[in-house]
Each structure stands twice: as C-alpha cells, then as structure tokens.
C-alpha cells in the first residue's frame, strides 16, 4: 500500500497541505543559511515577472552571472499568479506548506522547481550527491473551508517540541511563537511580513493578533481529530 497522501488529487483553485522529509529522515537544514536559502527560492519564484525584469535590467555587464541567470530563470518560470503560500513551517528534517494552486498542476511544478533548486544548493554546499528528500512529497487536498484554520494551526505548532539549545547553528528562539522558520511569526506580528505570504484568508477567520494567539494556545483534541487525515504521520 502506498504511503499516505503520496497519490495526489489534483484540482484547480484548491488548497493543499504539502509535506516531505529528508531521505532516511536525515536533516535537510543544517544551519540558518540553509533555511534562508530555501525561503529565498520561494520568494524568487513568487516574485512577479515585471519586478524580476526590473531587477535584471538594473544589473551591470560586470555583475555576477549566477545571480542574473537565476533571475532570468525565475522570470521565465514564474509562479506569482499560480501559487499562494498561506502558511509554512520548516523543521530540521522536514517541511510543511499550506498552499493554494490556481491551475491543475501548478503545485506539482512549483514544488519540483523549489526543492530541486534547494537540493542542488545543499549538495554543492556540503559536497554530497544523491537525493536529499524522500522520492515523493505528500499533498492532501483540503476539501472543506472549516479545516483551513486548523491545518494552519497544526503547521504553526509543529515547532513546539524543538529546543533552540539543541540547534546552535540556527537563529535562536524562545518559543514556538517566535520560531524563525515559520509563518507563525508573521501572523503574530513579531516581524515584518514577507510579500509572498498570503495572509488574507486566515486573517478573515482570526482578525486580530490576540485571536491568533488564543486560537493557537487552545488545547482542543477535537480540532486535530477533524484534520487527522490531512496531517503527516
């Protein structure tokens, strides 16, 4: 029997909980730079094409070719009008994304693009070869709006069990509320918002920072029971 949610249901204009982990459960983020690199790829491919073109045009002929090449590639393979990222948490050996795709296969193309870029970076930096992530990412179609806020909560609370002292190469944090590699911090107004994070839908359910904090702090098993088929096992 295939692992849960590897066989995906592709549907246009739909929300998905997307997740994957390192091959053999290995760490896929070894330090702060690794996290920032993956986030930079997400930002790059969600930057509108017109903005990327302006950046390309500002480069001088003597500029580094690798940066110009990356901008051109992102401009020609752009997801700004195809993908919305509503929540995320990057963990030491896995990741969670809550995204909406516009076209039927936009999610598949976006995930392939972002994590192929990251795997190339990681393997080059650490002088390794082979797969970094498990063969197939998992994605669960979210069929009911009432599940959306609870899945975002599950994703944002994923870092609860982590202790900063165990990861000295990461940026320090005090609690899951300010874990630096999660969109939770943006919803709790602890840092400036990234333009590529779409907040309007979750904010329509939880309109203030105080409501977000209260919702995240509630310990209601029934909330997770209703989304048990959509979370990582």
UniProtKB/TrEMBL annotation:
| Matches recorded under InterPro entries | Transposase_17 (IPR002686), Transposase_17_sf (IPR036515)
Q: SMART domains under this entry?
A: Y1_Tnp
Molecular functions (GO terms): DNA binding; transposase activity
Q: Which SUPFAM superfamilies match?
A: Transposase IS200-like
> Pfam families this protein is in?
Y1_Tnp (PF01797)
Q: Which GO terms describe its biological process?
A: DNA transposition
Q: Which residues form the Transposase IS200-like domain?
A: 11-158
Query: What's the domain of life for this entry?
Result: Bacteria
PANTHER family under this entry?
TRANSPOSASE IS200-LIKE DOMAIN-CONTAINING PROTEIN, TRANSPOSASE, Y1_TNP DOMAIN-CONTAINING
What name does this protein carry?
Answer: Transposase IS200-like domain-containing protein
